[in-house]
Amino acid sequence: MAKPQSHPPFTPFIARVETAERLAPHVMRITFTGPELHHVANTGYDQRIKLLLPLADDPQWEHSPLLSEECRTQGTWWDVWRSLPVNQRNPIRTYTLRDVTADGRVIIDFALHAPAGPAGTFAANAQPGNTVVLVAPDARSSTYGGGIDFHPGIASQVLLVGDETAAPAIGGIVDSLARAGWPGRVTAFVETPAREDHWPMTGLPDGRSTILWMPRDGRERGADLVEQVRGWASSHPQLFTTRWRKTGTATGPAAPSPSDFTEADIDRELLWETPGEGVPTAGQLPKLATGSDGFYAWVAGEAAVVRDIRRVLLRDHGLDRRRAAFMGYWRAGRAEN
């Protein structure tokens, strides 16, 4: 009897633009179709995937080694990509898997800004039939491949904070919590370039979600967002008290104090601090679960703004760093690689 074929947790899938819809002045939603996209796992939350753009001399990927049988079945696409001469490497960018429809369409939301990088240029000018490769979680795999950094544990209160680059992940998280029947409450602060950058985002039932859109309209990036978080934290002091539930006869380790705070150096290293691994377990009890009210914060976007919000939550309000995720998706003033 033949042994069932195994699949890597992430697989490169050929994907063609079906529609490109401008949700807002600075947001383009692209729906992709492809012969095998029905194998993309709809893992939800803030699932990251890789978008690979075609080379000018191979727009339909007819000669790409990244779509070889070995890359697709052994998961070696990254090693193959790195082995190529620099001028033969397809541009790669990271995006949130916004949704996968029941009929196998993949949806990605692109934040548009100037000057645009390769992916932003592609999104702004996308036409039906344009072809990319998506390296995405494979539903046929029995292995979890990572890429989800939303780990709320038993949280009953969740704070989501981000700019326009984090808005797709915030939308994915809220949608996933709603599908899971999570009974808690979400507060989300989303900064956008302009007042017109406001698009439908499904909330939780029974009014258990508050989503505040915050346009910059020419003001300093992140300034209003930081102050909004500061005010919200000051008005919810009970959420920042950590108590550890007992597991047997032992209690959890002592929570870090504000005096333990260390500033993130975003000029020297990537700001990416996330607790937990695996698929989120919102509402489920892990071995050690934090919080008198089970509070969890998820913050993503421009690195300097994320750093400042991290300072407010950890240093100024004493949030246990094991109850928060801070991710610098990009850095202002630095070109995309």
UniProtKB/TrEMBL annotation:
Pfam families: FAD_binding_9, SIP. InterPro entries: FAD-bd_FR_type, FNR_nucleotide-bd, Riboflavin_synthase-like_b-brl, SIP_FAD-bd, SIP_fam, SIP_rossman_dom. CDD domains: siderophore_interacting (cd06193). SUPFAM superfamilies: Riboflavin synthase domain-like. GO terms for molecular function: oxidoreductase activity. It comes from the Bacteria. Gene3D superfamilies: Nucleotide-binding domain of ferredoxin-NADP reductase (FNR) module, Translation factors. Residues 10-153 form the FAD-binding FR-type domain. Signal peptide: none annotated. This is Siderophore-interacting protein. The lineage of its organism: Bacteria, Bacillati, Actinomycetota, Actinomycetes, Bifidobacteriales.
